[in-house]
User: Fold Integral membrane protein from Acrocarpospora macrocephala.
Amino acid sequence: MSNRPVTLTVAAAVLALEGLTALVWGVYVGYEIVIGKAEDVPSALALAGFCVAVGAGFGWVALAVLRALRWSRGPAVVAQIFLIPLAVNLIQAEQYGWGIPLVAAAAIALVTLLAPQSTRALMDE
Assistant:
């Protein structure tokens, strides 16, 4: 879409970064399983699989937002709403290196996804 607003481009970039982070984390946990560092292998397998699936889902939604597909805003907004409590919990647990960037990313994604320019672009198919 050549007349895609910058708000959708920013939202797609944030979603892609969130997805990449989840994907990398899943691969890292999988690596820990393979080298024998995982303390609880079944839980680590579940976490690795979950992270890879979440990463793929975020990537898919990011691509849809970039293409300004109408359906993409719903899952993108819901994902950010779920990420905010996670970010707050990380901050409360003094995991500032993860919590602060996550809350910032979620806020940026929500603002750009709900911006009037994004709404116009997503509703004009």
Summary: The chain has five helices and no strands. The two ends are 10 Å apart (CA to CA). The CA atoms of residues 18 and 106 lie 9 Å apart. Residues 6-115 form one domain.
